[in-house]
C-alpha cells in the first residue's frame, strides 16, 4: 500500500502550482499549448531533415544477405539522385509529414500533461521523473501515430528500390497496403516501435531535463537562449541514437517489404545477429546521428519559441 501511494503521488501534484509560479515556482506549460507548439515544430523539422532519414532507411534495408547495393552514404545519395533525381531523396516525405505533425503534438502534449503532475512543490521536475514522463510520451506516440506512419514510410522507400515500384503516391500506397494486408499491415513492428520510441523519448527528456536543471540552477524560471536549447537538444539526440540504434534497425526490418521473413521482433534480432553480425545493428548510425541531432535541436528550439509566443496570446493561468 505504501508503494502504491508513492507511485500515485508521482503523477498527482497540486494543480495550484501554475497560479503560484510568479512567486518563484516554475511556470508550467498548458498541454493545449504543448500540442499546438509540438505540431508546428514537428512539421517544420521533418521538411528540413528528411533526406538524411531516407539515406538511413536505405542503408538499413540494404542487407548483406544479397550483395549490398550501396557502398556507403555518398554512394546511396549518388545512386538515388542518378536514378530518380533530387526528388528521389524525398520519396516517402508525404507519409512522414502527415505523421510528424500529430506525432510531435502527441509527444509534447503527453509529456507536459504528465510532467505537470510529476513536479515537486516548487514546480521542479527532476531527471528521473523526466525520464518516466518521456517514456510515457514515447509509448503513446508510438501506438497512436508512429507505428502506422513509419510502416508506410519504410514501405514507400523500400518500394522505390524495387525493379517495378507499385506505389504511385501516399494515398494509393496506404490504400494498397490496407487492401492487401488490412489495418494490421500498417502496424508491423509495433513492439519494436514502442521499444524504440519509448526509449528514445525517455533518453531525450532525461537528458534535456538534466541539462535544463543544471543550467537554471536555483532559478526555475531562468530564460534559456535558443542556441543553448539547440545545443542541449543535439546532445539529447546523440544520446538517444547511441542508446537505441539497434532497436531502430530491427523496427525498420520489421516494417520493410520483406518483413514476412521474420516471425517476431525477437526472431528478427536473432536472424540479423546470425546472418549479419553485431555491426548490422548499427547500420545507418552516421546518417541517423546527423539527422537526429539536427531533428531534436530544431524541434526543441521551435517548440520553446512557439510556447513563448503562445504564452503572450493564450492565458491559461
From TrEMBL:
<dbReference type="InterPro" id="IPR049563">
    <property type="entry name" value="TXTP-like"/>
</dbReference>
<keyword id="KW-0472">Membrane</keyword>
<keyword id="KW-0813">Transport</keyword>
<dbReference type="InterPro" id="IPR002067">
    <property type="entry name" value="MCP"/>
</dbReference>
<dbReference type="InterPro" id="IPR018108">
    <property type="entry name" value="MCP_transmembrane"/>
</dbReference>
<comment type="function">
    <text>Mitochondrial electroneutral antiporter that exports citrate from the mitochondria into the cytosol in exchange for malate. Also able to mediate the exchange of citrate for isocitrate, phosphoenolpyruvate, cis-aconitate and to a lesser extent trans-aconitate, maleate and succinate. In the cytoplasm, citrate plays important roles in fatty acid and sterol synthesis, regulation of glycolysis, protein acetylation, and other physiopathological processes.</text>
</comment>
<dbReference type="GO" id="GO:0015297">
    <property type="term" value="F:antiporter activity"/>
</dbReference>
<keyword id="KW-0677">Repeat</keyword>
<dbReference type="GO" id="GO:0071913">
    <property type="term" value="F:citrate secondary active transmembrane transporter activity"/>
</dbReference>
<keyword id="KW-0050">Antiport</keyword>
<dbReference type="GO" id="GO:0005743">
    <property type="term" value="C:mitochondrial inner membrane"/>
</dbReference>
<protein>
    <submittedName>
        <fullName>Solute carrier family 25 member 1</fullName>
    </submittedName>
</protein>
<comment type="similarity">
    <text>Belongs to the mitochondrial carrier (TC 2.A.29) family.</text>
</comment>
<dbReference type="GO" id="GO:0007528">
    <property type="term" value="P:neuromuscular junction development"/>
</dbReference>
<feature type="repeat" description="Solcar">
    <location>
        <begin position="29"/>
        <end position="117"/>
    </location>
</feature>
<dbReference type="InterPro" id="IPR023395">
    <property type="entry name" value="MCP_dom_sf"/>
</dbReference>
<dbReference type="GO" id="GO:0006843">
    <property type="term" value="P:mitochondrial citrate transmembrane transport"/>
</dbReference>
<keyword id="KW-0812">Transmembrane</keyword>
<feature type="repeat" description="Solcar">
    <location>
        <begin position="224"/>
        <end position="309"/>
    </location>
</feature>
<keyword id="KW-0496">Mitochondrion</keyword>
<dbReference type="Pfam" id="PF00153">
    <property type="entry name" value="Mito_carr"/>
</dbReference>
<keyword id="KW-0999">Mitochondrion inner membrane</keyword>
<feature type="repeat" description="Solcar">
    <location>
        <begin position="128"/>
        <end position="214"/>
    </location>
</feature>
<keyword id="KW-1133">Transmembrane helix</keyword>
